[in-house]
Structure to design on (451 residues):
């Protein structure tokens, strides 16, 4: 890891530039039973969307979608859930740290599907925004796959002359037929 | 809030009928309560204590209260655009930033206003300014979006949606 | 980030309806993104207690003045116990 550069030195080092375009392994975000009604019901209640396209089979068949669909980016939340058979992450979080924030115990698949860390000394991370692009809605039974890559890394200079990086990660969600469902681009400020 | 029946019976809005400057009917959500926040955390298995443990949020994190989840807001904007486009339009894309925190007691007004309209490959595209405004007039989620509406007597919007090559910047 | 308690009096705040008008909406108790009046207690003897956190007590003092409080004391908090959870003010 490089030392902190002086204010004149760019944070967009060759090592940082080297991860632009790096792509992680494509992984399955869903469980083996795919998109199912009960998870969908719980989710749509939480976003308070009563759309009958999510639960009324007879009506959904008459729509352009041909059947039950899910809310626009439902598939992007699938991969966060604890896999069946895993150790309980909540109990582990507090066993490891009694003052845990509740999410410290989460282990996300031993590096599968994860991007390498951006090799920068700039450790503070702020959310700089998100972009969502929709192509189609998942259907019941669809299995969901995701693949992430570093789409871009740019440098910005703050008013105080400090250097920061804007890191954009793009995650593409596909189904079992390799059809694109949606694309999420998340930008972070590293400073 | 929109009802299931309204979404079932919703009539198509056509590209031809919308002018630049048009403001779509807003979606009002709230007042939010700790139970709304807890329900979302449970639905997506987000165990971060800042969303349901008030003492932790205030005394450990120095927050004003438990916070509304950015991940929840991230679903609300596409949902709103989906509703605008129903039954046959398409909420192609939306980008936004997270600004003001939302806390229990807040009411959100989700809004969209047309800034540009153009036709491409026989489809009607509308660029929008979008956001979620709090009850004390602070914007919590400013953004931009592009939706696709059918043109009267024009062709159907393809599904799955494939954006015209000319409009894809990446 | 500091935490302070103010003890004083606020005329009319013993009335629950007035108290709600003064404290319910987010804009009434969130002074700015970092400064918050997190709790207010109306005591049986007519006094009020308010708890605040923020980078400096000056925002709190201005809020109290704006709200019409007469302040007996403004004191930093060291640590807190809340239903078995212990919080140290850093």
């Amino acid at each position: 890891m490089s030392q902190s550069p002086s204010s004149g030195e760019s944070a967009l080092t060759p090592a940082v530039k080297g991860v632009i375009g790096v792509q992680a392994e494509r992984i399955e975000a869903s469980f083996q039973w795919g998109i199912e009604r009960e998870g969908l019901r719980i989710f749509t209640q939480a976003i308070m969307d009563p759309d009958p396209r999510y639960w009324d089979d007879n009506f959904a068949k008459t729509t352009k979608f041909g059947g039950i669909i899910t809310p626009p980016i439902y598939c992007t939340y699938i991969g966060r859930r604890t896999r069946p058979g895993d150790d309980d992450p909540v109990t582990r979080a507090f066993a490891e740290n009694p003052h845990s924030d509740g999410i410290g115990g989460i282990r996300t698949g031993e590096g599968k599907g994860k991007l390498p860390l951006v090799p920068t000394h700039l450790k503070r991370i702020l959310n700089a925004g998100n972009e969502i692009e929709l192509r189609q809605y998942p259907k019941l039974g669809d299995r969901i796959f995701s693949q992430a890559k570093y789409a871009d890394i740019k440098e910005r200079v703050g008013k105080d002359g400090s250097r920061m990086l804007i890191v954009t990660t793009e995650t593409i969600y596909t189904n079992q037929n390799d059809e694109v469902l949606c694309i999420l681009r998340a930008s972070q400020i590293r400073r | 809030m929109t009802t299931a029946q309204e979404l079932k019976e919703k009539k198509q809005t056509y590209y031809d009928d919308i002018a630049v400057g048009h403001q779509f009917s807003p979606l009002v959500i709230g007042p939010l309560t700790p139970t709304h926040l807890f329900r979302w955390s449970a639905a997506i298995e987000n165990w971060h204590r800042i969303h349901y443990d008030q003492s932790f949020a205030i005394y450990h994190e120095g927050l004003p209260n438990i916070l509304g989840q950015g991940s929840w807001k991230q679903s609300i904007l596409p949902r709103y655009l989906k509703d605008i486009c129903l039954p046959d339009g398409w909420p192609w894309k939306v980008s936004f930033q997270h600004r003001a925190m939302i806390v229990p007691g807040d009411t959100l007004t989700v809004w969209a206003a047309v800034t540009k309209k153009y036709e491409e490959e026989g489809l009607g595209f509308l660029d929008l300014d979008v956001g979620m405004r709090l009850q004390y007039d602070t914007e919590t989620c400013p953004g931009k979006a592009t939706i696709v509406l059918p043109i009267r007597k024009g062709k159907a919007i393809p599904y799955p949606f494939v954006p015209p090559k000319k409009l894809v910047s990446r | 980030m500091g935490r302070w308690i103010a003890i004083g009096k606020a005329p009319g705040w013993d009335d629950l309806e007035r108290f709600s008008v003064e404290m319910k909406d987010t804009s009434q108790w969130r002074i700015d993104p970092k400064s918050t009046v997190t709790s207010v207690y109306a005591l049986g003897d007519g006094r009020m207690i308010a708890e605040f956190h923020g980078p400096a007590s000056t925002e709190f003092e201005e809020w109290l003045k704006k709200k019409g409080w007469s302040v007996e004391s403004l004191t930093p908090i060291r640590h807190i116990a809340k239903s078995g959870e212990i919080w140290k003010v850093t």
Q: What stands out?
A: Chains A and C do not touch (no CB pair under 8 Å). Chain A is about 15% helix and 25% strand.
